[in-house]
Amino acid sequence: MQTVFDSSVLSPAEAFGAWEEVTRDEVMPTRFRPVHTGPFSGRLEVLPMGAVRLAAMRYALLESRRTPRMIRQSDPELYQIAFIHSGLHVLDQARQQVPLRRGQFVLYDSSRAFTARAAGESMLLQFPRCRLPLPAERVEALSHTALPFRAGMGRLLADFLTGLADESASCTAEDAERLGAVCLEMVAAVLAHQLGASGLLPPETRQQATYQQVLDFIRRNLHDASLRADTIAAAHHISLRTLQRLFQHTGGVRNWIREQRLEACRRDLASPDLCSVPVQAIAARWGFPRPADFARAFRARYGTTPSDYRDQARRPGTGTGAPGQDPGAPR
Asked: Does 286 score more than 80 pLDDT?
């Protein structure tokens, strides 16, 4: 993500005015008022993803206001979803006051005046209203409501956004645009789930939501050596054929599971904190109960044995990637 504001490189006299100017350009025009008496501190990072924009924000206590006059002067016609990571945030819009705490998110509309009082950290996701494939009158029912993002579909979306923020440095502009499209489909699935209206979504959006749910299920059960395609399909009430179609771009669900398990083993073998854990124990932890099967699969994937890889990772000045190969590269 690109850092567009950091109060630590500005003088106290400049910081607050600079924050207002940067957020006007990077988020939307909003009038700010400092609530605390000390110097203002804040940080803003942004990740453009085509029609979608993700911002990671940290700020001292302040009040922001978007007035009807400001809306008439400039309205990007966006939905915004704020994910609260720390601090207390209070949103007042359409005569409804919504207190928001860690682990909650709220949807609001740039075309409606609001006042917010906030301090802490949050992620802000913005996207055009016209890109959400749900009736506006149904979506309106979710506005001004504190919703959880630490369970269910909300957690999947929050995890996805956090992963984007963490890995954005390795994304090209084309990658970011494709990920933005995926993000929109996930947002639509999350909001439709909250409305009990998943049937209103286009088939491709429902398919993307199912795919993300399956990925999450597999990641949480990688340690289970009995994890199989039929159990995954049954857990999500889909056919084996549908499951395989979801993973056809990865070489099939079985191949994807094996790759994720091998990568988890590779990370553990390279970890100094796990140097006393036997190789066989690490393999068993990630769903490889038979040492010979694990050794053969690891060598085929990374070009070396698990023990040799661990030895090389311990040597000073060596990286944790497999010798001669990018550990994230497909074979």
From this structure: yes
